[in-house]
Specification:
Layout: E1 12-18, E2 21-30, H1 39-45, H2 54-69, H3 75-91, E3 96-98, H4 99-108, H5 114-121, E4 128-130, H6 131-134, E5 142-145, E6 150-153, E7 161-166, E8 169-174, E9 181-182, E10 185-186
Antiparallel strand pairs: 1-2, 3-4, 5-6, 7-8, 9-10
Helix pairs in contact: 2-5, 4-5
Length: 188
């Protein structure tokens, strides 16, 4: 058998590290195919349950929101949800949140039947997902767009954006902490 270290067929298996020592009773499985895991290999060979991929975790968030609120959601509600989930990241060292807690956060923010909808989407609501896969990170941000413009906002700054109707026109108001630059020019 030839092993290609640059492009392994199933990924790499390493002993788990605990207290600065390898633990040969636990393994760390790494594959470059993060959104295309070999479920048979994980279940039969590694004798483990198949974890959710980052794309599946993000899809859970979007699916539950669409099933509970439909196609439209107030900007303040989504901002509060993102903020509450981000606060969980601060209190939880490993950066994960249980799906049950995620459902409670949605319901605390006025999204009805979120926990029931979550049970329809996922079989095990006690499983944990990475918070960074649910909410936008600083790198990714949130894109607000319509047919004429696209604005990217840092996920933490979405709370500074609000939508209002002014004179019959729909407007976004963005609270700014500092000056805004357009290329090399300061906008006044």
């Amino acid at each position: 058998m030839v092993i290609d270290f640059k492009n392994p067929q199933e990924g790499f298996i390493f002993p788990s590290i605990e207290n600065y020592k390898p633990n040969v009773n636990k393994i760390l499985y790494y594959t470059g195919k993060t959104n295309n895991l070999n479920e048979k290999f994980i279940k039969d060979i590694l004798n483990s349950k198949v974890p959710l991929t980052a794309a599946q975790e993000k899809n859970i968030f979007n699916t539950v929101l669409k099933e509970t609120v439909g196609e439209s959601i107030p900007l303040s509600t989504i901002s509060n949800v993102i903020n509450d989930i981000a606060n969980q990241k601060i209190s939880n060292e490993d950066g994960t949140i249980s799906l049950k807690k995620f459902g409670k956060i949605l319901e605390e923010n006025g999204i009805k039947n979120a926990e029931e909808s979550l049970k329809d989407v996922v079989s095990d609501t006690n499983s944990e997902v990475k918070i960074d896969n649910l909410i936008p990170t600083k790198k990714k941000g949130i894109k607000l767009n319509n047919s004429k413009l696209t604005i990217s906002v840092d996920g933490n700054s979405i709370k500074n954006v609000s939508k209002i109707d002014k004179g019959g026109k729909k407007c976004l108001i963005i609270e700014l902490d500092d000056d805004v630059m357009l290329d090399d020019f300061k906008i006044v």
